[in-house]
Amino acid sequence: MRAIVFKSSMSAIKIAGHDVLHQIWLRILSLQPESAKPLAILRIGTSCILILQAISVRKYLYPLVGSLGIMQTEITNSLALSYVPRLEWAARIGSKVFNLSEERVIIICFIGYIFFLSVLALGFYTRFTALFAWLLHLTFNTSGAASTYGSYEFSNIALFYCFVMPSGASLSMDSWLNPNKKSHSLYNALSRRVLQWHMCIVYLSSGIEKATGGQWWNGEAIWRALIREDVPLNFSWLAFVPVVAMIACWFTLIVEIGYAVFIWIPLTRKLWLVLITLLHAGIAVFLGLWFFSATLLTMNYSAFYQFKGNLSARVDATC
CA-CA 20 to 30 A from 5: which of 22, 145, 231, 283? Predict the structure, then answer.
């Protein structure tokens, strides 16, 4: 009798699991009409974060990207692809054509970078300004390759998406000046779906890579990250309660690996957005990576948060 009950229970679980996976698969592939508002949030959020980031490093601009800075040109060139734009090219043109020093060329490029980011945030000639903001960001990123980290890479991706996607079709000067010119709702949906797929790949690959190492199971990864000298808080007490670091590691693995599944289910989407927000809030507060966390949260909420008035929100409400 118990064997029959067990088999029937397993069969019911198997069928339910198959139905859930089938629904997730349909959601991943299907497209529903969407507004361009989420893409506008990506544009505005990314631009504002990068402006604040640029202002925060303005005093150290030449040491970070100059030819005789902390990392000299020969070293940074070896870390970047030869065809990617860099400030060295602009410095050569400025010197030969306008007789400008490298410092002045860097300042001019920096001012132009902030200018295009500001105009991009306003959404004026969005495609054009997004292109130049992305190219200048890529140029600074390449020239300061030795000092860059994850925030720069994800910002580069976000700016590229602002260029190729209809990010100026909502909450922008372009949409206000040309109210009759609107992007197709399915084009908005496809653009957002690409961003959603990208975020799922990022977290799933990151989580799987972490899970292959023992340090993410025994808590050593969090311990190593929090005892560095540049961390603003003192976490030496973790040596006496290692279970806290272990739980934090397990929490990270669950959130990142589970993201690619539970973020697609309407009932668990809000929960996973809260969990991913807590994860990045912890990274910001405890590791001091504020711009990295802000960039990732902007991309997350642009990808999956159901904004009021968004067409896809009505579809989810009926599911």
Answer: 22
Residue 300 DSSP code = H
The residue ranges of every structural domain in the chain are: 33-164, 187-319
For the cut 70, the answer to whether the pLDDT of residue 108 exceeds it is yes
Asked if 35 and 309 touch (Cβ cutoff 8 Å), the reply is yes
pTM for the model: 0.84
pLDDT digits (tens, 9 = 90+) for 217-242: 999 999 999 998 888 788 889 889 99
**Taking residues 181-209, what's their average pLDDT?**
92
pLDDT tens for each residue of 52-66:
999 998 888 888 887
> Residue 171 in contact with residue 182, Cβ under 8 Å?
no
Report the distance separating Cα 185 and Cα 192, nearest Å. 11
CA distance readout (Å), 312 to 31, 126, 295:
9, 24, 23
Q: Which two tokens stand for residue 262?
A: 């539970």
Q: How confident is the model at residue 1 (pLDDT cuts 50, 70, 90)?
A: low
59-68 own/partner pairs: CB under 8 Å, 24+ apart? 61/106, 61/107, 61/110, 62/103, 62/106, 64/144, 64/147, 65/106, 65/140, 65/143, 65/144, 66/102, 66/103, 66/106, 67/91, 67/102
List Cβ<8 Å contacts ≥24 apart for 128-136. 130/43, 130/159, 130/162, 130/163, 130/167, 130/168, 131/163, 133/47, 133/50, 133/159, 133/162, 134/159, 134/160, 134/162, 134/163, 135/85, 136/109, 136/112
Q: Considering only CA atoms, which of 288, 214, 201, 274 is closest in space to residue 250?
A: 214
Pair of tokens at residue 92: 């050569």
